[in-house]
Amino acid sequence: MLGRLDLLVNHSDNFNLGVIKISTAIDDMTTLLTSADPEMVIRALSALPVWNDNNFQVVGRVHTILLALGESADFTNGCAQLGTPGVAEKLGDAKAKASAAKVLEKWAECTGFGFILSNCNSS
Prior knowledge:
The protein has 123 residues and is mostly helical. The protein has one domain (25-119): Alpha Horseshoe (Leucine-rich Repeat Variant). Helix content is 74%, strand content 0%. α1 (2-32) packs parallel to α3 and α2 packs parallel to α4 (77-89). Mean pLDDT is 79; it is low at 1-9.
């Protein structure tokens, strides 16, 4: 019984360590927002496993970054085209729905509602 408990504790510690590593990577991305091209940041985020992450805290932080990118003057249709399918996928998640909707709404202000709709299913 004690062996199973140790296994459970170790698994929990490994999970928490993984969440911390992803959160640290996202924090590092946030510092890049002021100087990096939005398309580069979106491409870097898409290389991380955050699009399919089930942790709502990690997804919320990613959506905060994407929302800030949408407010950037350098945000283009190409940026929205890269990120829209991943963000639209989170509209079905109860905990991430609000932040995903805010991102898509901001991007629609920049690129047009029809453009965002046309790219929602292009994954």
